[in-house]
Structure formats: C-alpha cells, structure tokens
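I had to read the description of the data format several times before I understood it. Each protein is reduced to its one-letter sequence and a matching series of backbone shape codes. The format is easy to grasp once an entry is in front of the reader. For illustration, here is how one protein appears when written out as sequence plus structure tokens:
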Amino acid sequence: MTTESRNLKVVTDVVCPFCGTLCDDIKVIMDGNRIVDTLNACVIGNEKFKSAQAGHRILAPMEREDNSAEFAPVSYDYAIERAAQILANARRPLMYGWSSTSCEAQAVGNELAEVCGAVTDNTASVCHGPSVMAIQTVGAPCCTLGEVKNRADLIIYWGCNPVHAHPRHMSRYTTYPRGFFTERGFKDRTMVVVDPRPTDTAKQADIHVQVEQGKDYELLDALRTVIRGEDIPDVVGGVKKEDIKALGDLCKSRKFGVLFFGMGVTQSIGKHRNIDIAISFVADMNKYTKFTLVAMRGHYNVTGSGQVMSWQSGFPFSMDFSRGYPRYNPGETAANDILQRQECDAALVIASDPGAHFPVSSMKYYAQIPTICIDPHETPTTGISKIVIPSTIVGVEEEGNAYRMDNVPIRCRKVCDAPEGILSDKEILERILARVKEIKAEKKGQ
C-alpha cells in the first residue's frame, strides 16, 4: 500500500441523495475530508457525491445588481438581510423547489412561506403533481419497494425509463434481485414496458407494448375492459386487440403485480386522469390477484416535500398563503403558472433549478424581479438570480431526513465536512425566517 493510500477510509451504509430510489447501501471512499470514489452507487449517484469537491461549487454569497451580469461577493449576514427584506416587503412572493433538501429544511421553508403570505410550490407541479391529484381523488393501492423485491413476479414500467432516470431501481428492487418469494431473481419475474419508444429499459423487457403517443388513457381503459371479459376494438392506442388481451391475461395470472409509472403518463395528454384510470385498473386487478402501483419520483426528496407540506398545511404542492390561510389550486397556484402570468413580485428558489426546465418566458420574468437562489452549485437559475446563497449538500455534507418514492422515511447521513463557512439550507432559512418576523413586527408596530 502506498503512502497516499494509508489515510483512506470507507464510510458504509450511506444514502445516495440523488433520485427517489434513495439507495442506502452506498460505500464512500474518503481520503481525509475528500471523497475519492464510491462503491455500489450508479454513475449519477457517484457524480453527486463527487460534486462536493467540484469546481462549480459556490463558496460565498453573491449579489448581482439590476441590469448587471456580474456578481459581487457579499457576507452571509448581508445576503440573509437582503433576502429577508425582499421577502418581507413583497406583496406576493413565490417560493419554489424544496425537492433536493431535507425534511427539516422544508419544514422551516413552509413556515417562512406562511409568514410571508407566499405561494410555495415544489417540483411535483412539473413532474408527479398529477399523480398526487389522482391519489387525492381516488386513493391508491401502494406498497414498499421491499415488498416488490420479495414478492412481485410481474413488473410493469409504464411511461418511464429507469435505466437512465433511476439506474439502480431494477437491480435493487424489481427485475434482478433475489427476494424471499422470488428466489431465482429475474427468472421468477416477467417485466413489461409500456412506452411509445424502444428505450433502453424496453430493450431489457420480456414484453414491450409500444403504445401510441398520448394514448395511455385509452390503452388502460381497454385493459380494464378485457380483464372483465368484454370486447374492445381491433386496435386501441396503436396496440392490437390480441396483444391487449394477452397482457390482461398475464396480469391476472400472476401472484403479485406492480405498476411503476413515470412522467410519460403524468405529463402527457390526460395528466391526472391517466393516473385516475391507472389506479382504477390496479383496483380492478385486485379482484383477481395482488396488484399495486408506485410513482417513479425523480428528486430524492420530492416525496418528502409533499409529506411535510401536507403535515403542516394540508396540501402537498402549489400552496398559496396570500389570503392568510393555505389554498390549493394546481394550474392557478403552481410556480410556472404564477411566473407565466407575472403575478409574483419576488421569488426564492431552493434545491431545484427551474432555469434548466421552465419555459424561457417564465425565466425571463424571474430575471426581472428581486430573486434569491439557495444552491450549493452554479446553475442556470443562480446565473439570473439577484441574491445567491451557497448551502451544504444534504446527504453528503449534512444529515437529514428524506422520503423514498414509496413514502418510506430514510435518514441521510453526513459523509464529509462542507467547505469552511458554508451554512446548511435549514440554518439559512431559519435566519431568514427570524429576520422576516422582526421586519413584519416592526412594520406592524409603526
């Protein structure tokens, strides 16, 4: 062993803070306080850990004057004071993100939104918001990923591509692992992929059902019809009648089936109605066998954000406190809708990057108003914000709770120390909240 390797140590049982799978078997190889490599992590998860020492880390708060492309470094005290003044004096501030930080930070953020009379929204509004709306309407027969691993002999991936979006999902929980009742792993399971495209996940499937784009609702309705023994047209959603019947018979013949669905269903034509009928299909299947469904959530704690918002205020996303009480109306009170209609006069973005995903028109308006961005790294959103406050990375430099895509809470541990002087999301929000309360009290006393 060389001199350079004698200081190496391995931190075990680490939770990967990247996607909703929240893999909890990661091993991180450390050289002092530096992350050298990881074991068991996927390519994306490995990069998430290594990003702690990446060159695009923000190491000091920054401020950008109006009409200027240049940032000037400022102190944390100054940045927090400016952020508090912006939020306290705004008539209708928008707070967006929350999906890549801890539940503890989310709880403080929700209180801040209430005190400011803000609209607060998480990334579900442009991702799995329709899933949440459908579950609120009709409920959902769910299960944990552990049950899937140990029991499921039929896996359906509908409108998602886990090979790229959740790289270890299939190897840890669905297709390949050996479970208590699935001792032979993939030999005991059948995998079906329903997708308009021959994705890399579809290429590994036993059956690829190539549904026509935007026809998921029609295909699910046809499936419900055939499992009841009723007739359907010769072709539905680009899929032949005999293939639909064969899929229905396959579902009925298995002991435990699971339908995993992604943004190909939630963000296509039909949106939450697609999930309504998917839930109804699963409910129908339970007359014949055990069947459940699980949403393929993206950000590692977007599920936790919905949970925390619901605990505190009753609604999981797109929540409006501007009337002094929480109001919920997706389509009106979602972040992108607020920006499109230019209704907010200030904004705070944390633990997300709308600049990389929202329409250009939304971000053009965002760049015109007073804005605060809390993020460990340089992103398209930090580049057009007025105040940028760097934070630690939860699950790497800070511990905290997160919820896996199946609503199981998991404690993320700290692996290394953050760069000197960098505060956590929770501490930054707590300091902003305390100062906003002081400003509000001062204004009320005048």
Residues 425-445 form the longest helix (21 residues). The chain is about 35% helix and 20% strand. The CA atoms of residues 149 and 174 lie 6 Å apart. The radius of gyration is 23 Å.
